[in-house]
Amino acid sequence: SRVEEDKELKEEEEAGLEAAELHFLIFSTDSSPPPPAPFEQRLVTTKTHQITSYYSINKEEVLGGGRFGMVHKCVEKSSGLVLAAKIIKARSQKEKEVVKCEIEVMNQLNHANLIQLYAAFESRHEIILVMEYVDGGELFDRIIDENYKLTELDTVLFIRQISEGLQHMHKMYILHLDLKPENILCVSRQTNKVKIIDFGLARRYKPREKLRVNFGTPEFLAPEVINYEFVSFPTDMWSLGVITYMLLSGLSPFLGEDDNETLNNILACQWSFEEAEFVDISEESKDFISRLLVKSKSWRMSASQSLKHPWLSDRALHYRLHHKVHNSFELVTK
């Protein structure tokens, strides 16, 4: 009958639309990497010339800062290329060696999800690293911004890119060792593209030399760092688990009243999904976190394994998450 034909036609149309929407989701929002640096990879060594002969540094515009000093926007005079200048206080030879170690690490990394180094200048009291510039702010800002609603699918996109960056680092035998939302920059305010920054605490991993470290940010430290045991690739993966937990819930899994309590919570591996913020979160995401926040480092997922985990790789799940957002948005607008 005509009614049945119309019904079949409508179902076919809906199926076609769903397929088109899925195709759009997979090939646009979901899988394109961030833009690469606007320059070819360089092998940088420190120059002793005056940096101001080559670059205009905008001291008024502070892009970020930390234990090392400040990051400012700067422009290369000869090309007009917009870059970022990280000014690091380094008076002693020992301090300068630490910064040169950071330069060495950055020289070995060439990946769209890792910030790239352009040049370096050394003076008596400081070393300035000139790097790729991105203007989307820290990922941390999106976690604490009450006006910015991070969806689970947003988090999938962020974590997949961080995992891609870590996979490259680990393939090059480099550990980041200071992975946290402040060290992940968004490429722009409009997109979910990110780049890992700050390789000041990064170390080359040499399997025969057992590496111990005693630094980092308490909330993100792996148990082996606190216990002053050997660190390796899974040490970064623990931090990835903490970041995933934070992005999904806005909560910090181990944060105590003070650093001591935080460190004790980490050593006890005390964390849960009992908070209300996890009610609507997929089982796949909980499984993902559970495979990273494991006290024994040898049982944690690697970066390559994390990229194969269903939460980051299952297109049908991403489609469901996309629809969940779409439907809840419709309910709110109605």
From TrEMBL:
Give the residue spans that cross the bilayer.
none
GO cellular component terms, semicolon-separated: nucleus
| Keyword annotations | ATP-binding, Kinase, Nucleotide-binding, Serine/threonine-protein kinase, Transferase
Q: Which InterPro entries match?
A: Kinase-like_dom_sf, Prot_kinase_dom, Protein_kinase_ATP_BS, Ser/Thr_kinase_AS
Write out the GO biological process terms: intracellular signal transduction; positive regulation of apoptotic process
Q: Which domain of life is it from?
A: Eukaryota
Molecular function GO terms recorded = ATP binding; protein serine/threonine kinase activity
Q: Domain Protein kinase: where?
A: 57-312
So where does ATP get bound? K86
| Alphabetical list of SUPFAM superfamilies matching this protein | Protein kinase-like (PK-like)
User: Which PANTHER family would you find in this protein's record?
Assistant: MYOSIN LIGHT CHAIN KINASE, SMOOTH MUSCLE (PTHR24342:SF20), SERINE/THREONINE-PROTEIN KINASE 17 (PTHR24342)
Please report which protein family the annotation says this sequence is part of: Belongs to the protein kinase superfamily. CAMK Ser/Thr protein kinase family.
Name the chain's protein.
Answer: Myosin light chain kinase family member 4
Its ancestry begins with: Eukaryota, Metazoa, Chordata, Craniata, Vertebrata
